[in-house]
Amino acid sequence: MVQVDKGGRVLLRVINAAAATLFWIDSGTLASRLVSVDGEPVQPLPGDRFGVAMGQRLEIELDVPGEGVAFPILALREGARERTGLGDPRSGHR
């Protein structure tokens, strides 16, 4: 679990170090936007699911609402059921 201030903004940097696996980063209900790919700024792209290829880096801004307690961020392996991520272990999201 990662603690952040309510009502704040978080910059999430994702690096796909896999050699042969694509992942989808799922921000769930948080307002989010892609702001950088491989260290290069991009026109902010709003969404809640962002694909990350092998060896690729993404930076995603997340707006944390003033209310709520847990907002899991998941990395979903493409074509499989495996997943990992950040979340509240008490909620069943890991």
Describe this structure in words.
The protein is an all-beta fold. The chain has one domain (9-78): Sandwich (Immunoglobulin-like), CATH 2.60.40.420. Helix content is 0%, strand content 49%. The protein is built from no helices and eight strands. The chain has strands at residues 9-15, 23-26, 31-37, 40-47, 49-52, 57-63, 73-77, 83-86. The strands form two sheets. The protein has a four-stranded antiparallel sheet with strand order 1-6-3-4, with no helix packed on it. The chain has a four-stranded antiparallel sheet with strand order 5-2-7-8, with no helix packed on it. It is globular and about 40 Å long.
Shape: globular
Biggest β-sheet: strands ordered side by side in the sheet:
1-6-3-4
Mean pLDDT: 86
CATH topology: Immunoglobulin-like
Order of secondary-structure elements: EEEEEEEE
CATH superfamily: Cupredoxins -  blue copper proteins
Query: Can you tell me the residue ranges where pLDDT is under 50 for at least 5 consecutive residues?
Result: 88-94
Radius of gyration: 13 Å
Helix run count: 0
Fraction of residues in β-strands: over 45%
Main sheet properties: 4 strands, antiparallel
Separation of the first and last Cα atoms? 8 Å
Specify the CATH architecture.
Sandwich
State the name of the first-level CATH class. Mainly Beta
